[in-house]
Amino acid sequence: MAPVRLDEALFASPDPSNTPPSNSRTVSVGIVVQKYGGSSVSDAASIKRVAQRIVATKKAGHDVVVVVSAMGDTTDELLDLAHEVSPLPDGREMDMLLTAGERISMALLAMAIGNLGQQAQSFTGSQAGVITDSVHGKAKIIDVTPGRIRKAVGEGAVAIVAGFQGVSQDSKDITTLGRGGSDTTAVALAAALDAEVCEIYTDVDGIFTADPRIVPNARRIPLLSYEETLEMAANGAKILHLRCVEYARRNLMPIHVRSSFSTKEGTWVLSTERIAERLADEVPTEQEASVMEQAIISGVAHDRSESKITVVGVPDKVGEAARIFEVLAEAQINIDMIVQNVSAAATGLTDISFTLPRADGQTAMTALARLKDEVGYAQLQYDDGVGKVSLIGAGMRTNPGISARFFKSIADAGVNIEMISTSEIRISVVVNEAQIDDAVSAAHAAFDLEADEVEAVVYGGTGR
Amino acid sequence: MAPVRLDEALFASPDPSNTPPSNSRTVSVGIVVQKYGGSSVSDAASIKRVAQRIVATKKAGHDVVVVVSAMGDTTDELLDLAHEVSPLPDGREMDMLLTAGERISMALLAMAIGNLGQQAQSFTGSQAGVITDSVHGKAKIIDVTPGRIRKAVGEGAVAIVAGFQGVSQDSKDITTLGRGGSDTTAVALAAALDAEVCEIYTDVDGIFTADPRIVPNARRIPLLSYEETLEMAANGAKILHLRCVEYARRNLMPIHVRSSFSTKEGTWVLSTERIAERLADEVPTEQEASVMEQAIISGVAHDRSESKITVVGVPDKVGEAARIFEVLAEAQINIDMIVQNVSAAATGLTDISFTLPRADGQTAMTALARLKDEVGYAQLQYDDGVGKVSLIGAGMRTNPGISARFFKSIADAGVNIEMISTSEIRISVVVNEAQIDDAVSAAHAAFDLEADEVEAVVYGGTGR
C-alpha cells in the first residue's frame, strides 16, 4: 500500500527575464492602491477610522486609490433576501443585487473622507473600467481601463472603487468576480495604474508562519515570494486569495498585507528578485537577519475544507481510472490529491482515493454513482473528516531532509498521515480533521518558526 | 385689513391643439409601464405578490416595463448611515449611496418574476437611458433613451427599471431625481416607449375626494384631468407628485393610479378631451352618471406642512416688499400664498404675511433677519401651526357661488380663515393646523362628495 506521490508543478519558479516594466514604482511619491475588506468597514465608526487612514496616506504625498468591500454582513443579508424570493436566483440579477453592497460602503467612505476636508469620489466597477467576461457570479477580469480614476486622482481627489464587481464586455451587464474578487480588483487596478504598491488591509498584521489561532507564537513573515504566497493561498491560508496573487505575480505588482487596526509593517509579497534586492540593499535588522537564516521555510498552512472519496475495488485496467477523473472533470470538480493503491495480484482490483473541496462532495458522489455499471467498481466511500497541512518554503527544493523532518514531527505528535503530495516549494499531508491543530503546531515547532514573544494579534472579525 | 388675493395662474387650461401624437396607445396590446412604490415591495412576501401581478399582466398579452422604488425603509436607513459618517454628505456620494436601494429591490423583483417562469431583467437608471442634469439629489430628466429596455421587451422579457435615478449627461455621474422621482421615471419611460398607460401602484384604490383617514366616506374619483391632479398634488394630496403629473400632461400619457393590494379600477388621470371622449363613448354606469352630475368639484386636498411668516411694520414704500421676496428667492425658498395688509395711513407701515413649506422656515427666518436694517421692519413672526385646505374642480371657473359655499362651510364648522388664494380650478384657505380635519370634512360634505357607502381602504403603509 505505498502511496503514489503526485507532484503539482502548477506554480513554477518565475521567469528570470521578468523585470519590472518601469522604475515608476520605486519613486517615492506615486499611486498607492489600498483595499479594505468588509470587517474594516463594518459600521459607521470603522468607516470613519478607515477614512482617517486614507487621508493620512494622501497627506503623506501619495495619490490614493481605494478598493472597498461591502460592509460587514451586507452580502450575506442580500443573499438571504434573494433566497427568500427565489430558490434559484438568476445569475445576472444576483450580481445586480450583490453589487449594491459595495455601492453603499464606497459612498459612505467617500462621504467620511469628504468630512475630513479631503475630496473623494466613488466609482462602481463599471465606472472604474473593470471589464470582465459574462460569467455571472465568478467573472474574470479581461481588461482594466481606469480613465475616470486617473482623472479623479489627477484632480487631487481620492478615488474609491467598488471591489468585487465589473461590467461584461459583451452585454454591458453588471458582473461580480466571485471569491477573492475585491483583492483581485485592487491588484488589477494597481497594475493598470502602474501603482507603487497594492496594500491589502485586513484584521491581522500580515501573513504569519501559521494561523495564530492555532499557534499563538506564530511569527509574522516580513517578505514572501509570489510563489510561496500562491502555495499558501492554495493550501488554506485565508489572508490572500489565489486569483489576486496570480494577478500580482503576472504583473509584478508588490502587495503589502497589513492590519487596518494598526500602523505596523505587515507582509510584503514580492518577486524573488525584489526580495533578494531588498535583503542585499538593506543592513538587515536583527529580525531580518534571523529571517534570512531561516528563510528556507516560510510557514505552515492548513485547510479544513477538504473531503476524501475512495472508489473501492476498481478493475486495474488501462482507462478505468482515467474514466473516473474524466467524469469528475465534466462535473467541474477540482481534484486535489490522488492516491492509487498498488493492486492486489490475486484480485486484479485496486482502490483509488482522492481529495476534493467538501462543497463539491455531493456532486462528485452523484456523478460517480452513475458510473458504477460502466466501471464496475465495488463501492464508494465518502469521508468529510479530513484536512490538509502544508509546509511551504522556497528553500526546500535544494534542502534534503525537509520532508523527513516534517513527517517525523507529525508522527511524533501522534498524527497519522493518510496522503501526501508535494510541489517544488510545498509538502502537503492529509490527516484526520480533528488532528489538524496538533499537526500544525508540531510542524511549526520542528522548523523553529516561533517568534521570541507573541506578536500575532487578530484585531477584528473573521478576516474575509 | 382686507386680504389681497393673489391668483396663481401657473396651470392654465390645456392647449386645445394638443392631440395624442399617435393611435398606438389605443391598440389593445402594447406596452404597459407599472410603478410600484416602497410600501408595495417592503419585504420578500410583498415582492413575490408584486411579481405575480406583473406576470399576470404579461400573460394577458402586454409588454411590461416596471419601475420600482427602494424597499420599505431602505432609503431612510441609508440616510441615517450617511449622517453618521458625515454631517454634510457630498451630493454626488449621497446619490451613489441612495441608488443602492432601488438596485436591491429591482434585482429581487426580477428574481421573483424569474421564479414564476417569466424572463425578467433589471436595469439601473443609467442602463435604462434616463439622462439627467447634474443637480445631485434633485436632478431633472433631460432625455430618455430606452434602447436596452426596448431590446429586452422585444425579446419577451419583463424589464425592471430602478426608479428615482439617472445618469448625468455631462459628468456621467449617478444622480437621483428627488421627491416623486420614481413616479416621474415611470411616466418619462412610458412616454419614451409610447406606452398605452402608466400604472402607478400605491396602497389605496386611487385618488379620493378627500383623504380617507379624515373623511371615511370619501369617494374614489374615476376620472381626473391633468390640471385638477396638478392642483391636488400641489396642494397636499400625497398620491401623485407634481413633477410626474406635469410630465404626463406634457406628453399626454394616461396615468392609472390604483392599489397593488387589489385588482379594482383606480383613478384615470387624462386630458380633459380624453375624459370627454370616454364619457361620450361609454354608456355611463350609475356611478359615472353620478360623477358627471357632480363633476364640477373633484375633491378636497389638504396640506399640513405649511408655515407662515409675518413681517411686521414694513415701511409702505415701493420696493420694500420686492426686496423681501428677492432675498427669499435667492435662498431658494418657494413662497405659496402672500397677504399684504392695507397700510395704516397714520404710520405708513404695513404687515406682510406669506406661507412657505415648514422645512424652509429656518432658512427663511435667517435670510430675513439679515435684512432688518436695510428694510427697517419692526419684527418677524413665525407660525408653524398652520395648514392649507383646497377645493379643486375644473367646473368651478364657470360656476358662481362655489367660493361662497366653500367659505360658509368652513365658517359653519367654527374654523377661522387666515388667508385665501385661488386659481381657475382651485380655492385654498390657510387655517389653524388643529382645525384642518374639521375644515376638510365640512367642505367635503358641503359639496356632496360622500360615497353612499365607505369604499376607501388603505391597504399598506403610509403611501409614499
TrEMBL record, chains A, B:
Binding site for ATP: K35, Y36, G37, G38, T202, D203, R213
GO cellular-component term (any): cytosol
Molecular-function annotations in GO: aspartate kinase activity; ATP binding
Keywords: Amino-acid biosynthesis, ATP-binding, Diaminopimelate biosynthesis, Kinase, Lysine biosynthesis, Nucleotide-binding, Transferase
Residues the record lists as binding substrate: T75, E102
Signal peptide: none
Entries under PANTHER family matching the protein: ASPARTATE KINASE, ASPARTOKINASE
The protein's role, per its UniProt record: Catalyzes the phosphorylation of the beta-carboxyl group of aspartic acid with ATP to yield 4-phospho-L-aspartate, which is involved in the branched biosynthetic pathway leading to the biosynthesis of amino acids lysine, threonine, isoleucine and methionine.
Official protein name in the record: Aspartokinase
